[in-house]
Write a structure and sequence with these properties.
With 362 residues, this protein is mainly beta. It has helices at residues 287-298, 331-337; strands at 3-7, 13-16, 24-25, 40-46, 55-61, 67-73, 78-79, 84-91, 95-102, 108-114, 121-126, 132-141, 144-152, 157-164, 173-174, 181-187, 191-192, 198-200, 207-213, 219-221, 237-239, 244-248, 262-266, 269-273, 304-310, 318-324. The longest helix is centred in the last third of the chain and has 12 residues, at 287-298.
Amino acid sequence: MSIELGELSNGVSLTQVTTDTREKSNIYCELPYCSADSRIFVYEQKNSDTAPNTTEYVACEFGTWETEVIGRGLGGPGMTHSGIFFYKRIVPNKCQELVRIDLRTGKQRVIYEFPEDLQTRGLGTLSPNERYYAYGVTISYHPKMFGIELVDLAKGTREIINTDPDICNPHTQFEPTEGKQIMVQHNRGCEFKPDGTRLKLVGDEGATEYLVDIPDGKVTRLQVGLPHTPSITGHEAWIAGANEILLSVRAEGEYAPDKGNLVKVSANKPAERVGNAGLSLQPRWHLPVWSLLLLRRLAGRQQTHRRQYPDRQNRGRMRSAHIHEHRAKHTRASLSLARPQMARLQLRPLGPSPNPRRIRAG
């Protein structure tokens, strides 16, 4: 049951979407977890009663705020810009299934099977043509070495295509238009004990980004982070169709708060400041990058820009704000009248698919 919290003078209306006590999350700031038409968003909630798959994925329709559990898995799901949601779930004593859901239709299917004991680093990412799936892995802590593993969903094979001792927190993301490269966060100077205990997430040199070509693994270094700019703060996103990455750097020196620290960067070009002078993003403020992505994707369309705010006083609540392009007084009418009927999500069985496509990992 949703609760209307009122409107602000700038046209923002606040709605508390959930009222139960389960822990909620808007999943992650780097991607808009929405259907391609921006009518549905997905959040996750914890449910210890559904072990071993204790993370529930809930689809919610903007405006009506109707919700439906569409899957249960391990946490760390992903999203494509075409509205394909994917996640992993355990089938006890058998495997981990990679499940694909089309948020427009609600249809889902298993697209790959991993070993049950697979452990990945960071979130997985799916190419826009849905042929490849990639994620980070640990190769060794002594000596320290991590990798990017690529699954070819057409051939049913997986292989490590890139290794580096400092990609412990890779933030892998396929470029969302053509999918020829993956961005990788490079936490230079990270430190671990031989048993895997982390001592330092990033060293004095700070973090940067690089690109990995698909499928051959060629690396392209990006001119962001030292010595080009201050260290990146973490949390970055592709600007779809531009082959550019949007991210923030530490707000110091030439990127101090009064000058702005939001930048874009691409292969063979130096980082370039974007936004207005004085726009400064700190690492803990995740929502601005998420919001800018939606604004970029919805530009030129009569749509609603939505942002989700975890309630700081009760983690079992979530707030959602939406900003319509028209004047605030027309917001509710536009939501109810200008929106075609949404294809209803039908909850599919949450256990193993009766006839999944079996693929052996190479």
